[in-house]
């Protein structure tokens, strides 16, 4: 027995269960909403550079090139450019997206112009995720109450693309941190969704059909019966089923009928993506246990 | 790809949250500091998700990040996250537990506290995180041989400190298990 252990304020075993607690969840959401990965090798660094240039340009020539800035006694109270219109309403910055396909730099330019440090990415999403914040929730690293950050469609239930129907983002006027918002928009035909979530819930492509832990052949049969095209994402589960790896260069392997499906996700209009592995492992590696029953409904 | 990243990070987060929380709580004087270290460690992991190693290596990698975060913190260079109320509150109860303290432990604690930082960290990685030489080498990014030599010296210095306090040093084996 190592007596230095007695000096430890706490042992890891004493903390068992905290990884699924509220605090752990809040931190996870906060990280996903305020930080973004710096990819090793994608186009993203270039986009960031362009974005930086666009923001710099906006600051030097905002009033000349088209955006309109209305100044109040405490600074700007509204701002508009080709992509977005922002105005102050009852202590909230209300941003209405005029063009959901615009360069993301224009959204950031608009928020920055009114003093809000908000990065907004609008990405194609499955129909039930349009207007939803896909980043995982509001950030606890920002100030304000539960309404600090709200996203949605206005008027409620309208179809994006129709006259007067907008994606809307409301941000607390006193936002003190940096917010990262990833918002779902309707996908163009054939466009791959960037949203994430199971396809088996009510209203989903495979609503009510249990896909998890079944062989590929059974799930594919049901998908085809529903007129869906099937694509695969191949994962490499850890042997104990606690988590998995994924090799992006190894996705073109032929998937066998007897491979195991762990979940299904909407991939694009009329296309469902099955998350599969060749080997069966004791736990569903996506969930670290059984997929919750309530995720298969409808 | 972003969804893959997110899933990967989520798996690593869930598998290692308690260990990184434990690491931080054992080394930080206040729940606020521990919350900061945990938050910054995982924020770094998300920013660098493409470099995250797989399996158990991920935990060692996170310990390495946490160690750097902690060092920055101690130098007062860290950007303080002041909005971690939920996490701080969650950790606070760990700090309010009354230690099962004994006079003997106070002596050990004093000797331990008097060691150089590097010695303390090495001994703690063995005693608290349960790491072996190879794992410590990964966390500290040094060779196994260097770990062996430095641990030997750290143990010797701890023994000397304890002897000065008239506690028999060989009762406190700090060999990795």
TrEMBL record, chain A:
The chain crosses the membrane at residues 49-70. Keywords: Membrane, Transmembrane, Transmembrane helix. The keyword Transmembrane helix applies. This is Uncharacterized protein. It comes from Nonomuraea harbinensis.
Automatic annotation (TrEMBL), chain B:
Residues 13-78 form the RNA polymerase sigma-70 region domain. The keyword S-adenosyl-L-methionine does not apply. InterPro entries: RNA_pol_sigma-70-like, RNA_pol_sigma-70_dom, RNA_pol_sigma70_r2, RNA_pol_sigma70_r4_t2. Pfam families: Sigma70_r2, Sigma70_r4_2. It comes from the Bacteria. Keywords: Sigma factor, Transcription, Transcription regulation. Residues 107-158 form the RNA polymerase sigma factor 70 region 4 type domain. NCBIfam families: sigma70-ECF. Belongs to the sigma-70 factor family. ECF subfamily. This is RNA polymerase sigma factor. It comes from Nonomuraea harbinensis.
């Amino acid at each position: 027995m190592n007596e230095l252990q007695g000096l430890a304020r706490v042992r890891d075993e004493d903390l068992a269960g905290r990884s699924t607690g509220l605090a752990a969840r809040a931190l996870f959401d906060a990280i996903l909403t305020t930080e973004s990965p710096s990819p090793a090798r994608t186009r993203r660094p270039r986009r960031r550079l362009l974005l930086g240039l666009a923001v710099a340009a906006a600051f030097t020539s905002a009033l000349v090139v088209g955006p309109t800035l209305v100044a109040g006694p405490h600074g700007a109270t509204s701002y508009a450019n080709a992509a977005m219109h922002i105005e102050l309403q009852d202590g909230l910055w209300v941003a209405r997206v005029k063009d959901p396909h615009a360069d993301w730099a224009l959204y950031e330019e608009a928020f920055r112009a009114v003093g809000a440090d908000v990065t907004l990415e609008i990405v194609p999403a499955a129909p039930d995720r349009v207007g939803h914040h896909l980043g995982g929730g509001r950030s606890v690293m920002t100030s304000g109450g539960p309404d600090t950050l709200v996203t949605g469609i206005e008027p409620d239930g309208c179809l994006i693309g129709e006259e007067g129907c907008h994606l809307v983002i409301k941000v607390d006027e006193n936002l003190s941190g940096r917010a990262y918002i990833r918002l779902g928009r309707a996908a163009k035909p054939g466009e791959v969704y960037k949203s994430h979530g199971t396809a088996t819930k009510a209203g989903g492509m495979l609503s009510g059909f249990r896909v998890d832990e079944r062989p590929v052949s059974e799930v594919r049969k049901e998908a085809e019966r529903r007129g869906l095209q099937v694509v695969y994402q191949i994962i490499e589960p850890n042997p104990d089923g606690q988590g998995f790896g994924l090799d992006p260069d190894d996705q073109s392997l032929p998937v066998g009928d007897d491979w195991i499906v762990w979940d299904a996700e909407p991939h694009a209009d009329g296309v469902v993506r099955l998350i599969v592995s060749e080997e069966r492992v004791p736990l569903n590696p996506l969930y670290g246990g059984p997929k919750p029953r309530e995720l298969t409904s409808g | 790809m972003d969804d893959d990243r997110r899933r990967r990070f989520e798996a690593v987060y869930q598998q290692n949250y308690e260990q990184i929380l434990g690491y931080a709580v054992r080394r930080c004087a206040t729940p606020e500091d521990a919350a900061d270290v945990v938050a910054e460690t995982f924020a770094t992991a998300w920013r660098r998700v493409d470099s995250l190693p797989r399996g158990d290596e991920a935990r060692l990698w996170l310990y390495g990040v946490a160690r750097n975060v902690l060092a920055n913190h101690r130098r007062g260079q860290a950007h303080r996250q002041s909005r971690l109320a939920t996490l701080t509150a969650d950790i606070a109860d760990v700090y309010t537990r009354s230690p099962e303290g004994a006079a003997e432990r106070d002596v050990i604690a004093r000797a331990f506290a008097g060691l150089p930082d590097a010695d303390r960290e090495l001994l703690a990685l063995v005693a608290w995180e349960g790491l072996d030489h190879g794992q410590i080498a990964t966390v500290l990014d040094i060779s196994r041989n260097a770990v062996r030599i430095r641990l030997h010296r750290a143990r010797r210095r701890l023994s000397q400190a304890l002897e000065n306090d008239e506690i028999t040093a060989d009762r406190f084996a700090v060999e990795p298990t």
